[in-house]
Amino acid sequence: MKVLFVVPEIRLDSSPNHFPFWAGILAAIVEQKGGEVGILDLNALRVKYGGNQVPSKIIADEISSEKWDIIGIGGLTTTYARIKQLAPLIRKFAPDSLFVGGGGWSSYNPTEILELIHELDVIVIGEGEETFGELYDQVKNGSRDFENVNGLCIRNSISKYEFTSPRALISDLNTIPFPAYDLMETEIYFRFSSIPLSADSFNSKRRVSTVWERGCPRGCTFCSHNGMSRIDLQNIYGEGDRKQGEKLVRISDKENDTFQLPARWPSPEYAVNNVKLLKEKFDIDFVSILDENMTSNLKWTKEFCDLYVKEGLNETVKWGTLGDAPSVAVKPEIITIMRDSGCSYISFGFESASDKVLNQDIQKGQLRTHLQKTVETLKAAKMTPITTFMIGNMHENINDLMETVDFWIENGAEIDPFICTPYVGSPIFYDNKDYLLQQYDTKLKLVAEGHAKVDDKTLQKWKLSALDKFMTECGDATKYTATVSQYFTIPELFALKEFMYKHDTTRMLQMAHQKFDETGLEQWKHDDKWNKYCEVCKAKEELSLKISS
User: Fold this and answer.
1) Side-chain-facing half-sphere of 14: CA atoms under 13 Å
2) What is the pLDDT of residue 219?
3) Which residues contact 406 (CB under 8 A, 6 or more apart)?
4) Residue 526: Cβ-neighbour burial (10 angstroms; 0-12, 13-18, 19+)
5) What is the pLDDT of residues 364-373, one digit of tens each?
6) What residues are paired with 155 via a beta bridge?
7) Less Cβ crowding at N or C end of the chain, within 10 Å?
8) For 309-359, how does the pLDDT look when each residue is reduced to its tens digit (9 = 90+)?
9) Dist CA 446 CA 369 (whole Å)
C-alpha cells in the first residue's frame, strides 16, 4: 500500500511557519500499519520557487513517480481555492487512486465540496486518525465499500453522496502517534524559525510548532475547530442546526459509551514527551504551541509547566502559546507559572473592548474588565501583551468601535484589527449564510426581496456558485471577504480600521457625524461620553458659548 499526502500552499505573502501536523500524524499511522507513505508539502517547497505556487509540472512529476493507492489532501478553510486548482491535476496523474479530502476546508460542508470538486471520491469529516486508519484497511483488503467506516461523506452515482454514521471523537488523545517528522521538510521550516512575538521567538534558530488541544471550551461565534469538537459535529450533521445535529451526536455517544466534549487534551506527559523527542531529534530551541486556548485548562497547564521544569526543558526550549482573558482574570498566577517554565509569549483574542459586542456578538464569556486584568497581569510579569481584535461584528456600531479604540489608547496599544470573517463552519456563517451569499450574487438578494421568482434547482445552483466565490476569497484572515456587519460596508470598515490603528479618533468621529448627517442612521450617532475625543462636538460647544455670551 502506497499513500501520498498533499499539503497545499497557503498565504503566499508570508513564509511557511508551521509543520503540517495532520499529514505527519496520518503518515505515522500508515507507517504503523506497514504501508509506504510520502508527504508532498507544497507549502514548504514553494520557497524553492520564489515563494510562489509550486509549478504544475513539478507536482505532476511527483504524483506520477509512484502508483499511489490513496492520495489525501487537507488543510484549513483557507486552502479551498488552491485545493480546487490541484484536484484536477492530481486526478489526471493518479486516475486510479482513492482521492480523499479532509480537514477544516471540507468537513463543514462536505456535500457542497463534493459538488464543487468533482475529482474527490470521499471526505473524512472532522477528526481523521481513526477514520483514515479504517479507510486504509478497507483499501488494503481490496474493498471500496466504505459504508461501515464511520465519519465519511462518500460520492456515489445514485444520490450524488451519502453519509456514513457519525464518528465519535477520540476519547484518549494519548493514543495519537507523534507526527512522522522524518517525512517533513523540517530544514525548510527551520529557515523561517524567527517570529516577532518575543525576544526568544525572534532569536530562535530551530523553532517547531505543535498542537495538542482539540476544540475549545469557549463558544466564540466566529470560530470553528476543524470538526474536532462536539459543537462542530452538531453543526456539521445538523447543517448548522445544532439541535438536529445533537440528536446524531447523542446516538454516537451511546454507541461508543462516551461523551464528546468541546475541548480535549492528551496528558501533560504526552505533551512534554513530544517536546523531548523534538529536542533530541532536531535540537530545537523554541516551540510554538498552537493549542487554541491553553490557559483555559488551568489544571492541565500547571501540570505541564511543572513537568516541563522538572525535565529541565525550561532552560533549553522556550515556548509560546495562545490563551484567553477570563481564565487569566480569575487565576492571574498562571501567568507567572507559565513564564517561569519557559513561556515567553501568550497571544490573546480580545476581539473587542465593547461589553455589548463581547456579550451579543462574540459570546466568548469575557468582558472589558477581563481584558484589562489580563493586560495588567502580563505587564506585572514583565511579558508584553499580545492581543488581537476584530471589527465588523454583526451589531457593532460607532460607540462599540470607540470603546475598543479607547481601550487601546488607555493601554498604549497599537493594534491593526482584523475584519470579521465568517468562515465556513463558524456559527456566524450558518446564521448569516444567505446574507453572505447575496454579497456574491445580487440575483439572490433580489429573489429574497421578492423581486423575482426562480425554481429551487436554479436557486441552489446560484447559491453553490456564490459559495464557491466566497470560499475562494477566504485565503487570508487579513483580507476582506463578505461581511456580517448589519451597519457598516466593507469600504467603511476599511476606513474605520485605519483610523483606529492610528488612534485617530478625530477622523473617526468626523466620519460618524458626516454619515449621520447624510443618512440619519443610528449606528453613526455617538454617545456624549465620546465628546472628549470629538472635534465636531467641541467646536459646536465652543461656538454655542460664544453665541450665548
Assistant:
1) 12
2) 84
3) 353, 530, 533
4) buried
5) 999 999 999 9
6) 161
7) C
8) 999 999 999 999 999 999 999 999 999 999 999 999 999 999 999 999 999
9) 44
pTM of the predicted model, to two decimals?
Answer: 0.94
Q: What angle in degrees, to the nearest 10, is found between the helix axes of 398-411 and 505-519?
A: 170
Report the candidate in 364, 356, 418, 361 with the shortest Cα–Cα distance to residue 387: 418
Helix, strand, coil shares, percent, the chain, to 5: 50, 10, 40
DSSP codes, 141-167: TT----TTSSSEEEE-SSSSEEE-PPP
* CA–CA distance, 312 with 286 (Å, rounded to integer): 14
The 10 Å Cβ neighbour count of residue 486 is: 13
Q: Is the Cβ–Cβ distance between 466 and 444 less than 8 Å?
A: yes
Question: b vs e for 164-200, b when ≥16 Cβ sit within 10 Å of the residue's Cβ?
Answer: bbbbbbbeebeebebbbbebbbbebbbebbebebbeb
**pLDDT single digits (tens) 16-73:** 999 999 999 999 999 999 999 999 999 999 999 999 999 999 999 999 999 999 999 9
Q: Which residues, other chains included, contact 28 with Cβ-Cβ below 8 Å and sequence gap of 6+?
A: 177, 178, 179, 180
Cell of 542: 465652543
- Name the burial class of residue 254, with classes exposed (0-12), middle (13-18) and buried (19+) by CB atoms within 10 angstroms of its CB: exposed
Is pLDDT at 549 greater than 70 in this prediction? no
pLDDT, residue 477, reads 72
Half-sphere exposure of 20 (CA within 13 A, CB side): 32
Phi-psi category of residue 383: left, alpha or beta, with phi > 0 → left and psi -120 to 50 → alpha = beta
What is the chain's length?
A: 549
Q: Are 272 and 305 in contact (CB under 8 A)?
A: no
Distance between CA atoms of residues 399 and 506, nearest Å: 14
Q: What is the 3-state secondary structure (H, E, C) of 44-69?
A: HHHHHHCCCCCCHHHHHHHHHCCCCC
